[in-house]
Amino acid sequence: MPSLDHPVDTLILPGLNGSPEGHWQRHWARDNPESRVVEQYDWACPDRGRWLEELARQVEMIGRDVWLVGHSLGCVLAAHFAESPLAARIRGALLVAPCDLDATETLHPCIVRFGTMPLRRLPFPTLVVGSLNDPYMPLDRLRRTARAWGSDLIDIGAAGHINVASGFGRWAAGHDFLELLKERSALAPVGDSRLFTHAVAGAGLALN
User: Of 13, 128, 174, 193, which alpha carbon lies 20 to 30 A from 201's?
Assistant: First the structure.
């Protein structure tokens, strides 16, 4: 449980198989006492209903508005959560390397029970950070998905799945994207990415 000195304001959402030690999401959770990883009962065989139940339980338990930081299938979880009554408590979501469910089920057949890809506009501010060569999300689908969600989109070049395998450990520069989302949420309407124009150059590929 978080201490009273550090109330949780950020929930971290890993994807399929969870984020292993060394993944930037685990580093972020340790580095920031105001954040918490939403631990799912079964990381290997994701079930949308059960994952949504656990996220809802965490949001209710915190009892205050929170930010979401998703990776891969965790981004899809955040998009599905937009249909929950508790979505009103989401201040915004940083969605890194979202996976396309069709691609994920091809690469990991018979273990992902997440239904269809959510493609409705999300009711909270979002920033999608993607890669030019992500095996889980072709670039054209990444662009269409971000547009459907009403998200701002930043690609950080050929960065794979933005995970440990593609060289992303602590990824301190990723914090800049979360801060940009927070600033932009206060200053600009969703869908206006002009705030990012001068801030993005060089920020995404700093791996440590």
Answer: 13
Give the integer Cα–Cα distance in Å for 138 and 105: 14
In a domain, 176, yes or no: yes
> Rounded to an integer, what distance in angstroms lies between the CA atom of residue 156 and that of residue 116?
27
Condensed to tens digits (0 to 9), the pLDDT of residues 172-192 reads 889 999 999 999 888 755 444
Q: What is the DSSP letter of 47?
A: B
Which CATH number fits the domain that encloses residue 99? 3.40.50.1820
Residue 2 maps to a domain: no
Over residues 42-56, the mean pLDDT reads: 96
Q: What is the CA radius of gyration of the chain?
A: 16
The span from the CA of 153 to the CA of 5, in Å, is 34
Q: 179 lies in which domain range?
A: 10-196
First vs last Cα of the chain: how many Å apart?
Answer: 28
Q: Flag whether pLDDT at 119 surpasses 60.
A: yes
Torsions phi, psi of 179, nearest 5? -65, -40
* Within-domain flag for 207: no
Residue 189 forms part of a structural domain: yes
122, 70 Cβ separation under 8 angstroms: no
Q: How many domains does the chain have?
A: 1
Which candidate, 85, 64, 69, places its Cα nearest to that of 10? 69
Pairwise CA distance, residues 150 & 173, whole Å: 24
> How much of the chain is in helix, strand and coil states, percent to nearest 5?
35, 15, 50
Confidence label for 171 from pLDDT (cuts 50, 70 and 90): very high
